[in-house]
Amino acid sequence: MRREEVAELAGVSIDYIVRLEQGRGLRPSADVVEALSRALRLNFDERSYLFDLARQRPRTTDKPATTAVAPLAQLVDDLSPMPAMLMNHRFDILAWNDEMARLLVDFGTLPPAQRNSIWLCLMHPEIREFYVDRERVLREGVAHLRSAWAAHPKDQVLTDLITELTGSHKEFARMWAQQDVKINGRGQKVMRHPDVGEIAVHFEVFMPLQDTDQRLMICRAADESSKSALKRLWAQ
C-alpha cells in the first residue's frame, strides 16, 4: 500500500505517516494505532505487536462474548473433577462442568438472563445465603463489575444490568456508590453447601490470549475438610 492509501484509510495526514516511518519522536494515541491496524489489515498478533511498539494498551472489544468458544468449553469439561466455568467480562456464565453446577446451582435450569454470577449472588434465593462472608464476596464482585464497566463503556447490556441492580437492590446501590475497583483474579470463598456443609475453595481466573473476553475460573479445595466435603458431594 502507498503512504497516501494508508493515511486516507487511517484518517491521518501523509506527513504523519512519514514521521512515523522515520521515528521522529511521535507516540501515536491508542485511537491512531487502532486506525492504522485496521488500515493495514493486521491480524490479532500483528495488531498486538503494533500496540506494544507504540507503548499503548489495545482497546477492549465492545462486543462481549455471548457463547463459549468450542476449545474452551471442552477445557471446562476436561478440568473435572475440579469445578470450572467460563464467563465474560460482565460475569455472564457461558459454560460450566457438572462439578461447578453441583457446587453452586444447576445453571442449565435457569433462564439465560439469570446466568450471571452477580445477579445470582443478589437475587437467587439459595445463592443469596450461600457465602459465609457474603458482604466481602459481593463487594469484590461489584468492584470487579465497575472495572469491567469502565473498560466497556459501550456495552449496553452491562449498563442496563447495573441500572437494574442499582434501582432494585439497595445493597448493590450502596456498594456501587463506593466506587471501589478490583480485578478478582485469585482468592478464596467459603460456602455453606446444603448437602455437605461448609466448603472453602481457592479460585483462579485465567484469560485466554486469543479470546480475551472469556474468563476461565477454576476452583479447588482450600483445606482437607473441604476436600473431603467435595468428595462426598461428587459421590452423591
From TrEMBL:
| Matching InterPro entries | Cro/C1-type_HTH, Lambda_DNA-bd_dom_sf, MLTR_LBD
What PROSITE patterns has UniProt attached to this entry? HTH_CROC1
Q: Which Gene3D superfamilies match?
A: 3.30.450.180, lambda repressor-like DNA-binding domains
GO MF terms held by the record: DNA binding
* HTH cro/C1-type domain ranges (all copies): 4-47
PANTHER family xref list: BLL4672 PROTEIN (PTHR35010:SF2), BLL4672 PROTEIN-RELATED (PTHR35010)
Protein name per its UniProtKB record: Transcriptional regulator
Question: What high-level taxonomic lineage is stated for the organism?
Answer: Bacteria, Bacillati, Actinomycetota, Actinomycetes, Mycobacteriales
